[in-house]
């Protein structure tokens, strides 16, 4: 029974992935999960365990994935018109990570590394110039950066309060107690007032009775 259920779920999953129409959301989510979410978690584990082999493996993967993302920025509008483009992208991202193939290592050693070694001097100059310009921009716009930072912190604090209110709502019983408990004091004061008013005429009545007895 369990084997039949796994076979049915696997068949449904393949049909959803391979369906060319109406599944762009599913296949894009699958690409983000396989291409980003899982590698981030595996990179985290490699760093925490101080596994140098795994750290090198995922560094190579991120180099390959970053190169692919740069190419995709300029070619996405053209390639997205191709049928089954996101399915091919999904298969490529799986190929990059498969231990039996290790596509990221193949792509890095055969294409990325030779290209970067040939143009390393020029790329170093471009990177240094870019970092210098970024440092100048940050130094000349300290006020704007501090203002933007304060605004972002306020937005995050407001969002945190909203999330806390959603996750920990006030119970209706406590709310009714809080609403009903506040007017209790005026009601008690009114009752005391009525008692005071009722007690005041008692003194003349008593004095009249004493007057009659005296006669």
UniProtKB/TrEMBL annotation:
UniProt subcellular location: Membrane
Record field: compositional bias (Low complexity): 180-189
Pfam entry (one): TB2_DP1_HVA22
GO CC entries: membrane
Biased amino acid composition, Polar residues: 205-215
Region feature (Disordered): 175-215
InterPro entries with a match to the protein in the record: TB2_DP1_HVA22 (IPR004345)
Membrane topology: Multi-pass membrane protein
Protein family per UniProt: Belongs to the DP1 family.
Protein known as: HVA22-like protein
Organism, scientific name: Papaver somniferum (Opium poppy)
